[in-house]
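Data availability (excerpt). All sequences and predicted C-alpha cell strings are deposited with the supplementary files. A representative entry, PepSY domain-containing protein, is shown inline so that the format can be inspected without opening the archive.
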Amino acid sequence: MRIYLLRICFAAFLSGAGAPLAAQESTRDVIAAHIRTQGYACDRPQSAKRDRSASIPGEQAWILTCDDGVYLVRLIPDMAAIVGQMR
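C-alpha cell line:
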C-alpha cells in the first residue's frame, strides 16, 4: 500500500504545477477507498494529513477527514489498516 501511495504522489509530482493539489486529492481518495473496504463509511473524503507523531517505522499514520467523521488511519504494508474514529 505504501509503495502504491508513493507511486501516486510521484506521478502527481511529475505532472506539473498542480502536483501538490493532485497529490493531496489522490492520497485522501486512496486512503478513503482503503478504509471503505473495511466497512467504514467515508464516501466524501475532505483531506488526509500525515501524522508523523503517530507514525512508526513500517506504519504510516494519517488523519483522514470525511463528511461523517475524522479517522486516524495506520497503514501497514500487506495488511488491513488500523482505523480509529477520532470525532
